[in-house]
Amino acid sequence: MTTLDDLLTPRSVALVGASDDPTRIGGRPLAFFKNLGYEGKIFPVNPNRDKVQGIDAYPSLADINDEIDFVLVAVPAKGVLDVMRQAIDKRAKTVMIFSSGFGEMSDEGQVMQDELSRLSRESGVRVIGPNCLGVFNSAINFYPTFTSTIERRQPNPGGLAIASQSGAYGSHIFYLADQRGIDMTYWITTGNECDVHVAEAIKLLAEKEDVHAICAYAESIKDGDMLVEGLEIARANRKPVVLMKVGRSAVGAEAASSHTASLAGDDKVYDAVLKQAGCYRANTTEEALDICYAARPRIYPAGRRIGLVTVSGGGGVLMADAAEDHGLDVAAMPADAQAIMKELVPFAAARNPVDVTAQFFNDMTLVPKFTKLMLEQGNYDALIGFWTSVAGSPRISPHLRAGLTEAMQGHDRKLFIQSLIAPPEICKEYEDDGFPCFEDPSRAVATMAALMHFGIAFDQGRAPTPDVPKLPALPDGGLGEKQAKAILADFGLPMVQDVLATTAQGAVAAAANDGGPVALKIASADILHKTEVGGVELGVSGDADVSASFERIMANAAKGAPNANIDGVIVSPMVADGIDCILGSKLDPVFGPIVMFGLGGIFTEIMGDVSLRRAPISEATALEMIDELKGRALFEGARGAKPIDKTMIAKAISQLSVFAAAHADTAESIEMNPLRVLDDRCIALDALIVKKGAEEH
Amino acid sequence: MTTLDDLLTPRSVALVGASDDPTRIGGRPLAFFKNLGYEGKIFPVNPNRDKVQGIDAYPSLADINDEIDFVLVAVPAKGVLDVMRQAIDKRAKTVMIFSSGFGEMSDEGQVMQDELSRLSRESGVRVIGPNCLGVFNSAINFYPTFTSTIERRQPNPGGLAIASQSGAYGSHIFYLADQRGIDMTYWITTGNECDVHVAEAIKLLAEKEDVHAICAYAESIKDGDMLVEGLEIARANRKPVVLMKVGRSAVGAEAASSHTASLAGDDKVYDAVLKQAGCYRANTTEEALDICYAARPRIYPAGRRIGLVTVSGGGGVLMADAAEDHGLDVAAMPADAQAIMKELVPFAAARNPVDVTAQFFNDMTLVPKFTKLMLEQGNYDALIGFWTSVAGSPRISPHLRAGLTEAMQGHDRKLFIQSLIAPPEICKEYEDDGFPCFEDPSRAVATMAALMHFGIAFDQGRAPTPDVPKLPALPDGGLGEKQAKAILADFGLPMVQDVLATTAQGAVAAAANDGGPVALKIASADILHKTEVGGVELGVSGDADVSASFERIMANAAKGAPNANIDGVIVSPMVADGIDCILGSKLDPVFGPIVMFGLGGIFTEIMGDVSLRRAPISEATALEMIDELKGRALFEGARGAKPIDKTMIAKAISQLSVFAAAHADTAESIEMNPLRVLDDRCIALDALIVKKGAEEH
């Protein structure tokens, strides 16, 4: 098993394609090794020179009579495979390739890249790149990168780690993080990812003790399972992972795929799976770095109950709006604590937001009094204070800090973010006291919401999942409605009871057996859109009508789908009105089987009101899925309806997720649509299983 | 008519309650007048001193033997009315009141505040406050405010103006704006708004030539008509108004109303009306100031077509995602222009985002070549460039600026925002060349979207509205369904034809006349929820069934609503299936009649997918309303349906809006629900008019 140390803490490094010019790709990292204090052995490789930048050079890797941990490759693409083979011979641990001209460029390049992957897999030598900008480990001053950003800014070792598929954007993030005073030890860019990819980088960083928070950027994920594993390790170790998975939009996805030549995957699936694994998906760099910055005290509140304290009524209203936007609970202070506040400052608003008015700055003893009351009696998981520019004054700030620090005694699990305007040196004093600072109160609230997300996710831990049994393989060939229904019903999923009639008499008998009016539907694995060929009739009753309906459907099908294999007509009871839902699963190219639940057609298709999870999931997780829907109100008695027991739906969702996981190798998609939800039960009226490689007709 | 000069450019100022202590409320403004260069006459009023801060003082306003334009009041609340009466006697133009203890405090305070309003109205003396933090006009160094913020930062005169109900938050905004280098001449805080309110401040600023952009903060709007008027004046003068209307959330609204003791109004109505008047509603201070900052070149792009150019593929993807989030059109470059780019830089991505790669910095002649191609051949309304920290280097930036400036020649209407990391002095050089700078590319995109909003709103101008005729008054008393339908049908709204039957025979006759199956509904102004009392039966046919249905409904109503006045039973034809919509109007406490359109019950009630506009509106505006709905897909042929001519719906919406506007004095709400939309027509199946002051039964 590779560790982060294997990749980023080498005792020796060879630079193939070393250059005398410290501004060139092959020269810059050498200059960094020399000038920034890397203490390992350095072997420049250049067949044309004895020395490069004053260091003894070697004609080839083979000529180096020493162990080499890390090989850095800065030669044109056509020479890279050769260097890779030499590195394998030298038993290097890691080969990192700056060179471009691989998969991102041409089919020929992809062939070379695939060969690199094969060599890596077979030899066990790990490869970073090709077409990457490098990595760093600032704890040992190891900067094998050609970004000029290092010349403008050199990082301080610290708990943040950055993993980025994009080199230039990775540099951008690093630069901004450092500018905000966030210290970081590890930085990894993965480029074309012929071996090491962002998902593995996250996993390695999550395992490493001196990493406290991970900021990652990815345009595509090569290995969904490893990403989830990495995220769950991070969760177990209480390390926040903030991931910018870009390409959310159609144009963005297209630009990303042309940029990295990889499949985008369904963006909504990313959203769901990342959340499921406790990760926070950031849409902007600023948001991502706000979270990394505020994570420095390593305090992740236990819930979403937020206390807001302000010296400006306006600031309080603004924060309350933002808190509700982010789903936080702006709960009121208890009445008796409010009364104490009113006694201290009659003009104060004591509910929450607590507006202490400018009186706060006139009498600094009020600071610990008010905030202590909020922490101890308000039962908040965290506080945000809005103090505007007054808190930045050198006269006021020491007193404010002292008061806030006094109030925080004994509340180790609680975080107190300060929104204020202050010069950097005064901000730093607040930060050193454990208070992250934000100029903009709305950003303070958004960031707090993210930290609360982590606190809750860490406390919950990985969600238990049901066991996936080994099930008999699906039958060969396409599956018709009747077959799909039978297979799902056999597995215990709630399915309407119906009869396959091959004659009009059979249909009449089935209908008579059922008693009430029936639905008749053409049965054929070859006809997926039954209504379009006139293959569905509903609410039919009476022998004559049932018989006529059977004949009509068979005739329509023969005409509308002349080449279809017809099994007959399915006769099923009409089910009372209820709430029509869709329950299904889909095989995602990145994350495998994804279970999906939503309300009837229009809600799912037009409103996009649908919940997704990586299968399999428990009933508890399925309940969360239901509660995520806007349309859940329908189950909760909206519009005068009776509230419905959601656990019966959750049971079906969980069960389908297990079925989908068990058939992940062969079932491309499964759909129970509609799943009709009645007062006391839910039942699927139709079902579909599409097998991998099957085409829709 | 009051002008901004009347309020903010006085030739003389009296300060009642003047203090010798320059840190006190009555002392600080005097110190500002003295020390910051105000050149008008200054009259401190203090009965206990001959001089205040070295200036001759007067026992009262009456003792000043000179004209006084502006009276500043800093005495306790109980003395304020007296000062107001003296100011009226002295024919002051403006009285500004710092004092608190009015409506925000107690009922007694509200009585005093109402008296201030009355005195102002009757005398014509304008009042700012009470409970306000002051105003300023930096062009004449006039700082009648007690905020200590002025001691930390003194503004430079310039095109931005700020109007804020909240004093402390107004100071906060001013401080941040100044910190970002945005120059501003006018700053107004309105406090309790007993006379001058934020809406009027916006109007006065919009009228004033040296104001180029307005940033406003409000917790409530006192006069919706004046706000719309002010916004339309700003639009006509091509001045952006960025409004933070806070209290969006339930907790926020409650905090705001306890803060300013005013009604919140429906937040969705604010959203709709502000947009309708060309205003941009910002949710955060940062967003608001980003827009004010980027508005400095006063360039508002003509459309939403955006060109993105980047040196990092990642940055391009990120900007494309953000652009799609904000509804911008990331249109592709023409193929021939792409070919030219590929010739210049073979590795470049030439579609859009255009990724010029790091090659850009190696050959700076590429800068004007690429950006010129985008401006001239891409037909974009605006560009955003992502250059990360490289563009901030003193070596690179002069060349980059020169290249960008060269490309922009002849494109005066286009804006080019630069996303880069640079020290302030280098940023300023870009800004001086007309390029707003943003570190975060997503914020650059969001800001561009806002400027495009303004460009389009300015070009469109005020939307024409239909004339509102004088209509006969609505009948006295509550209106039943039958009456409501008749009145709306008379006005030309599409309404189902029905008959009021008072006997079973009458119902049978009406049904027979109609031919097909009918719906029967109880007719009573006292029963608004007909289904609940068993007052509705649908799809009834045949004489016997119609007769039985009539009797059943009458019996149910007699039992379920024994005190109701029953008119009979309405017999109406069943209308074919279609798309059920809701068309209605509601009287908003701030903005008057608001027309509302959405899809059937669940969409409107649960999904909140509904469009609103201030009535009356034209058919063109009504079409925009329809197109705003997510559910519009249903009209456009979603799920295999036939596309529907939306103009027939728009006609009904516009017509109802005119009706609502004509009855704004008496009709509290009007509802046509469902409005059933069929292939060739739309028709309301039910209607309701609730009059002002009527209670639901």
Concise structural overview:
The structure is a homodimer of 697-residue chains. By secondary structure, chain A is α/β, with parallel strands linked by helices.
CATH architecture of the largest domain in chain A: 3-Layer(aba) Sandwich
Roughly what percent helix of chain A? Answer: 25-40%
User: For the terminal residues of chain A, how far apart are their CA atoms?
Assistant: 47 Å
CATH superfamily of the largest domain in chain A: Succinyl-CoA synthetase domains
Q: Characterize the largest beta sheet of chain A: strand count, sense, and whether it forms a barrel.
A: 6 strands, mixed
Structural class estimated from helices and strands of chain A: alpha/beta
How would you state the average pLDDT of chain A, rounded? 93
What strand line-up does the widest sheet of chain A have?
8-10-9-11-12-13
CATH topology of the largest domain in chain A: Rossmann fold
* Total number of distinct structural domains of chain A: 5
Rg on CA atoms of chain A, Å: 31 Å
SS elements, strand count of chain A: 28
- As an assembly, this protein is homodimer
CATH class of the largest domain in chain A equals Alpha Beta
Task: Itemize the secondary structure elements and their pairings.
The structure is a homodimer of 697-residue chains.
Chain A: H1 4-8, E1 12-16, H2 28-35, E2 41-45, E3 51-52, E4 55-56, E5 70-73, H3 80-89, E6 94-97, H4 107-123, E7 126-128, E8 135-137, H5 149-152, E9 160-164, H6 167-179, E10 184-189, H7 198-207, E11 213-218, H8 224-236, E12 241-245, H9 250-260, H10 267-276, E13 280-281, H11 285-294, E14 306-310, H12 313-325, H13 335-344, E15 354-355, H14 359-362, H15 366-377, E16 382-388, H16 397-408, E17 415-420, H17 424-432, E18 437-438, H18 441-460, H19 481-490, E19 499-501, H20 504-514, E20 518-523, E21 536-540, H21 543-560, E22 568-573, E23 579-588, E24 592-599, H22 601-605, E25 610-614, H23 619-628, H24 646-662, E26 667-677, E27 682-684, E28 687-691
Parallel strand pairs in A: 1-2, 1-5, 5-6, 6-7, 9-10, 9-11, 11-12, 12-13, 14-15, 14-16, 16-17, 17-18
Antiparallel strand pairs in A: 3-4, 8-10, 19-22, 20-21, 20-22, 23-24, 23-26, 24-25, 26-27, 26-28
